[in-house]
Amino acid sequence: MDAILATLQRWDLHPVVDHFTVSLLIIGVLIDLIASAAPTRTWVRYMALTLMILGAIAAGASYLTGDMEGDRLFDAMSAPAKAVFHWHAMLGEYFAVAFGVLAVWRILIEGVGFFGGSRPVYLVFAVISAGVLLYIGHLGGQMVYTYGVGTALMSPAPTPTAMPTATAVLNESLPTVSVPTATPSVPTPAPLVTVPPMPMAPLATATAPPTGAY
Questions:
Q1: At 73, which helix (H) or strand (E)?
Q2: Is the CB of residue 24 less than 8 Å from the CB of residue 55?
Q3: Reported confidence tier of residue 123, pLDDT bands at 50, 70, 90
Q4: From CA 54, how far away is CA 20, in angstroms rounded?
Q5: CA-to-CA separations, 58 to 31, 53, 92, in angstroms, rounded
Q6: Which residues does 34 contact at the CB level (< 8 Å), separation at least 6?
Q7: Model's pTM, two decimal places?
């Protein structure tokens, strides 16, 4: 039994069944109102009866599938989502029973002459119940589109990493980087070339003229 329930939960049947519940019951009530304006068209009345019976069955299925989904998702809901879910589940349970009673009442109106006179009262309760059904659907949509129940938005967002403050950065020891300074390159002086002194020519010694040459 648990394996069957787990399989049904994986199929996400609740929103599928809900669409049948809303469409069958709302259209069934509208056709019953039209049938009141055309009492000679008995096929319209039987159409409304058929839709009410099918809608009541769908309402019971909506409650059962919603109960399965609630058991699976309730712990992961936020507090506001749980408040909406409370009203959605409670009204869904009450009006699943209410539409079952309306379906039986509608069968008695069509099949037992004594109940035929209660048709106007039945239509009043059917219209009110259809209005509440729309409100129940609104609560279900609010759970999904506002609070992300059953979707990826339901998972908690990751906690952002705290950014370091300027004070923390200042208090930390900053790594030092040694940058070598460029030293000016002094050109090496060229070696001095020793030039040997040039030899000086001997000066000619002046000789005195010989005496007695006059």
A1: helix 42-73
A2: yes
A3: very high
A4: 9
A5: 18, 9, 12
A6: 44
A7: 0.67
